[in-house]
Amino acid sequence: MAIAEFLEPAIKDYATQAKATYSAPINTDTFTGRQFVAGQDPMQTQAASLATQGVGSYSPYLTAGQTANTQSAGALGQAATAAGGLGALQSGAQGYQTAQAGMTGPNAYQPFMSPYQSQVIDATLSEFDRSRGQGQQEIRDAAVNSGNFGGGREGAMMGQYNADSLADRSALQANMLQQGFGQAQQQAQQGFNNQGTLFGNQGALFNMQNQQNLTQQGLAGAYGNQINQQFGLSDFNRQGMGQDINALGSIGAVNQAQEQAKLNADAQAAQTGAYESYGRLGQYGNALTGLAGGVSGQQYQQEEAADPYASALSGAMGVAGLFGQIYGGRRN
Fold first, then answer.
1. Mean pLDDT across the stretch 40-45?
2. I want to staple 234 with a disulfide (CB 3.0 to 4.6 A). Which of 58, 91, 143, 298 is the partner?
3. Do the Cβ atoms of 317 and 257 come closer than 8 Å?
4. CB of 296 within 8 A of CB of 290?
5. How far apart are CA 16 and CA 32, in angstroms?
6. Backbone dihedral region for residue 147 (phi beyond 0: left; psi -120 to 50: alpha; all else: beta)
7. For residues 22 and 295, is the Cβ–Cβ distance under 8 A?
8. In the 3-class helix/strand/coil scheme, how is 239-258 assigned residue by residue?
9. Mean pLDDT in the chain?
10. 136-167, pLDDT tens digit by residue?
11. Per-residue confidence band for 129, with pLDDT thresholds at 50, 70 and 90
């Protein structure tokens, strides 16, 4: 089919433009490449830094908990030692109490009587008898000198002297026995008091040992509480850090998505500009074909891009969700 004469200039113009357009390479760097990828938002960078710092952040709390555990074990060991000594102290106290009970009653003085008391009394009475015998001799000598030896006067004096001697001898013996009994009574009372003091001292030692046992048990409980507190602080630290990281990552992801949307729009505008001449030539050629009576080809259409913000936000929020899963969950 012959081309209409009035179309020839247009067709030649189209051919010239098509040759120039299709022979010139498209600079795809204007709408592709890494310059159209949004970098990390400062909040995302901060979140990543916190995440790095959070690795092993529980170690100080674990170390403190282990130290408290060791101290708790030591306190329990000391408590067990103190409790083990209570039985001996109680037995000692019971022994003193039994000994004190044995120092009561009417015969409690007897163990404290001097074993040499009878010897002392015998020696004293013998000396008393010897001295009184000398007195009798003096009465006889006086009777002889006065010429009354064997007389009634001598007998009366000797009788009175012997009666007085017997009374004095009995009083001396009773006094020595009473003195020994009194001393034994005092010593028995002192022994009773001493046993009571020993019993009280032993009871005080028992109470002190028991108090030490209770104190060590209290310390063990306090160390146990400290262990729980350290683990609680560790959990709180990790959870708080996880929440911060999750918040920073999420907000940073929104900011990054916004920036990525701008870059996507810029890339799409650059791509549209790069292919604009092709679309225009396509429409030009289809118009000429139609005028020449032919069938127009498929009109050039640039691929419609998806919503740049929605696409960028979806990817960024997916990354932010990873931060939350890693650090935001509660540790059991």
1. 88
2. 58
3. yes
4. yes
5. 29
6. left
7. no
8. HHHHHHHHHHHHHHHHHHHH
9. 78
10. 777 777 777 776 666 676 677 778 878 888 88
11. confident
